[in-house]
Amino acid sequence: MFLDFFKSKGHTIEPSVSLVPVNDPTLLWINSGVATLKKYFDGSVIPENPRMTNAQKAIRTNDIENVGKTARHHTMFEMLGNFSIGDYFRAEAIEWGFELLTSPDWFDFPADKLYMTYYPDDKDSYNRWLEVGVSADHLIPIEDNFWEIGAGPSGPDTEIFFDRGESFDPENIGIKLLAEDIENDRYIEIWNIVLSQFNADPSVPRSQYKELPHKNIDTGMGLERMVAVIQGAHTNFETDLFMPIIRQIEQLSGKTYDPYGDNMSFKVIADHIRSLAFAIGDGALPGNEGRGYVLRRLLRRAVMHGRKLGINDTFLYKLVKIVGEIMQSYYPEVLEKRDFIEKIVKREEETFARTIDAGSKLFDEVVAKLKTENKTEISGNDSFKLYDTYGFPLELTKELAEDAGFTIDQNGFDVAMKAQQERARAAVVKGGSMNKQSEVLTALQDKSVFSYTENTLVTTLTAIIQEDKRVKTAKNLAQVVFATTPFYAEMGGQVADHGVIKDAAGEIVANVTDVQKAPNGQPLHTVDILTELFEGETYTLAIDRKRRNGIVKNHTATHLLHAALHNVLGNHATQAGSLNDVDFLRFDFTHFAAVTADELAEIERQVNEEIWHALDVLTVETDVATAKEMGAMALFGEKYGKVVRVVTIGDYSVELCGGTHVANTSEIGLFKIVKEEGIGSGTRRILALTGRQAFEAFKAQETILKDVQILVKSPQPAQIVAKIENLQAELKSAQKEVDSLSAKMASAQSDELFQNVQTANGTSYIAAKVAASDAGALRHLADVWKMKESSEILVLVAQIGEKATLLVASKSSDIKAGNLVKALAPFIDGRGGGKPDMAMAGGTKPAGIAELLDNVGANL
């Protein structure tokens, strides 16, 4: 109705464009209806019609935390707007706004339910509202009703509010809610009309701003709010824009949505899945920066709220279909891209699921401990650990903390972040992560020996460091050193062991959450103490064997991978960094080009061959010289002492390595490369999986292959390639038929087209906009024209998709087609060239076609 109304007032309906801004680095997202029309407002492009209207999808993420808490906050919303570029102004904008809202032919709102705010000095708007029939007591002056962002176009705005009645005003405060800008649910802003009237100048008072020579109108009506008003919904979420999603969340969770209860999780999920579906459909993908980080944050926030509702499996991707069905009439792209969107969302959910359980458990443990201590602030170290280890954005931890009645030590988090950044910089040089050194740690001389052979051992606690002081006893978080330890300290790309500390009675008294090398080389255990630890006491240390098993599989596979890279790519492919984690391995190496698919296949085959050969993995300690004689390769960034460990895998690999490994390559099970990419000049990276993770990756690919088999209707997997080749041949044949039909259509246009001959400066020409499916159709028309005696110059323009294509052909010896193309192409924001008899250009501004055609004669 909104678009139809303004179309009846001479407006052109502009389409809703992608949420990802095109050629606008100032915006992360399209965040309003006017954002897509900036080129018109700043004068860089002149619109064909100065009156425009649109319904534009938009994303705003400046207050994500409020989504679900309030009745009207959203990350993605639709903004309805009508715009005038130097055409009509205040009188028409206010008149039409009142007509649309109150006319029985349109929204038919009772006039006495509408209230308008205006800028106190803007008497013109005040008087115009009176003229159209608004009562004076429904006009409220508000000092903030002035739009400006520094120097440039600015002006007053007048906002329209709908009074939802006394049931939304339990204290019966009335119009004071609006006049004093008190947060309320009674008076809902449904529309804002911005009157771009002045040229703002920060050096002078607002009263001295000069008027703009060309005044503009920019309005915004939130569709979600308007629907809530029309449908009488308690909040925006009880409308038919959201309720179908909420109903499906009810089915997935087994919980019931109560419009008047605490439904924050339902609302967050319903809101965020809309943003994810639309943004991914428009080409944005979850990641660690910019738009990608926003999407990752939204997805993780929605997943956490799913957990609050008892949904512990991947579920967001199941909501994409219902989002697409709700929006299909105006945004069919969501359903059209449904499969792709679902796969991206599901993959991101699965990635997050691998860490979310551990992170949630840690959060619950932290909160429980704080409650026993009557504390209300979560430390910066704990919130940083949730961020750095478990992928919880700080905003998410803050939100969970707030729900639990706690706060976050922001400064402590910032300090931990800075320390991590310093360790990262140090890692570039040293090849490993190290805790920030202190005087206490530097002075620590207590001996500590790491045992490669034991998973559990009894030992003495020799040192406790807490808050950068050496102490005799400690509770809570501390760093400790033992005389001997089975815990591997992070080094050489291998992550640290985790595990537990038990007392003499066998009770767990502390959890080991990290192990780093102290300045003097001792394994320094970071421990979360459950009771109390005492220096000099005897304790039993036990590593998490399941975690260690995953790490050693990946570490030994890294050695096999390094050898395979040498065999396939050459000895120049040496290690430039690695990470051997629980679920995957990452290996950086020097190489001058991307590794080809065939090379990757051969590397993967070789590594699996050595796994299947069941080679023993042997380690010996010797001196560096002897190790080199054995052919051992030194690993990136390692510093070796007088005695080194040499890890030998059959006759396939010999390396210096201080890490832990499997006893036999058969324990690795399976090896799968999942990604190869460049990370810098001359440096490549391989991500790979082993064991169970590798098996699951192969099964996922098998599922995709089966889907393809079904799609191409292949009886057997072995026949898929032949089936696809046949389909490609059929497609090629169909394309030829399309080309033939296009040529026939072009010929059909030519009879009438070539009769419309004009003359300018003594030269005859034909200039026309034509229907064409591609540039080939234009060329075919030019070929037909050449055989006729109709004119000396031919200018054809076609809108093909979102672009314009220009063709110029010439039979004149005085006018070269290439020169004329260069003169005309700027009208469509294009460029091009060609031969004297024919030239072409492509442009990004189809709106300029009419102006181009009008200017052909002037350029002859």
Topology:
Layout: H1 2-8, E1 12-14, H2 38-41, E2 51-59, E3 76-85, H3 90-102, E4 114-118, H4 123-132, E5 139-141, E6 146-147, E7 152-163, H5 176-179, E8 187-200, E9 210-222, H6 223-231, H7 243-253, H8 264-281, H9 290-308, H10 320-327, H11 333-336, H12 338-372, E10 377-378, H13 380-388, H14 394-403, E11 407-408, H15 410-430, H16 439-442, E12 449-450, E13 456-466, E14 469-471, E15 473-482, E16 484-485, E17 499-502, E18 508-517, E19 523-534, E20 538-543, H17 545-569, E21 575-580, E22 585-590, H18 597-612, E23 617-623, H19 624-629, E24 643-649, E25 653-656, E26 671-680, E27 683-690, H20 691-711, H21 720-753, E28 758-760, E29 763-769, H22 775-786, E30 793-800, E31 803-810, H23 817-824, E32 830-834, E33 838-843, H24 849-854
Parallel strand pairs: 1-2, 4-5, 10-11, 12-16, 29-30
Antiparallel strand pairs: 2-3, 3-9, 4-7, 6-7, 7-8, 8-9, 13-14, 13-15, 13-20, 15-19, 17-18, 17-20, 18-19, 21-22, 22-27, 23-24, 24-25, 26-27, 28-29, 30-31, 31-33, 32-33
Helix pairs in contact: 3-4, 7-8, 8-9, 8-12, 9-12, 13-15, 17-18, 21-22
Mind explaining what this structure looks like?
- By secondary structure, the chain is of the alpha+beta class.
- Helix 8 runs antiparallel to helix 9, helix 9 packs across helix 12 (338-372) and helix 13 crosses helix 15 (410-430).
- Helix content is 37%, strand content 26%.
- The protein folds into five domains: 2-233, Bira Bifunctional Protein, Domain 2 (BirA Bifunctional Protein, domain 2, 2-Layer Sandwich), CATH 3.30.930.10; 242-353, no CATH class; 439-543, Elongation Factor Tu (Ef-tu), domain 3; 548-700, Threonyl-trna Synthetase, Chain A, domain 2 (Threonyl-tRNA Synthetase, Chain A, domain 2, 2-Layer Sandwich), CATH 3.30.980; 747-859, Diaminopimelate Epimerase, Chain A, domain 1.
- The model is unreliable at 424-437 (pLDDT under 50).
- Strand 18 (508-517) and strand 19 (523-534) form a beta hairpin.
- The strands form seven sheets. Strands 1, 2, 3, 4, 5, 6, 7, 8 and 9 form a nine-stranded mixed beta sheet that branches. A six-stranded antiparallel barrel has the order 13-15-19-18-17-20. A six-stranded mixed beta sheet has the order 28-29-30-31-33-32, sandwiched between helices.
